[in-house]
Amino acid sequence: MASYISADELARLVGDPRQTPGADYLIVDVRDEDYHIGHIPGAVNVPAHDIRLRAGELIDKYGQVPRIVFHCALSQQRGPKSARVYSEIAQERLMIEGPGSPLAKQTVQVLRGGFVGWADRFLRTKPELVEDFDQARWDAL
Rg for the chain (alpha carbons), in Å? Predict the structure, then answer.
């Protein structure tokens, strides 16, 4: 079961120059086209409808990353479900690889409030925490 991480806690991680996305943590944005309206720095985009098909690819590439954070727009449905699906597939892989696998130490989390909460919290105060933001398209949502 995935736990939740607050926007402030994730912002500390993202803003820490000693932490490298894809090595020390990974943010998986499971939104569809709205990913291109703006996203968290370093996030990879895997739409929720593809997560079951691409979870193995994520595990192969990022299985050694100690913390994976999933989110969607609000982290009420797609984000938590994607985290659950990823966790289930990672558990199956862990049963094959055994307790020495890096997956045994991986923490799976969901960003509380999703990208909407993240943007509300940081867009004006710390704009460097929102990449490729398109205000006109955001307002049209």
Answer: 15
What is the set of domains in the chain, with CATH numbers?
3-126 (3.40.250.10)
Q: Whole-angstrom Cα distance, residue 65 to residue 28?
A: 12
65-119 tens-digit pLDDT = 999 999 999 999 999 999 999 999 999 999 999 989 999 999 999 999 999 999 9
105 vs 42: CA distance, rounded Å: 21
Q: Are 30 and 72 in contact (CB under 8 A)?
A: yes
pTM of the model: 0.95
CA distance 32 to 46: 8
Residues noted as catalytic = 72
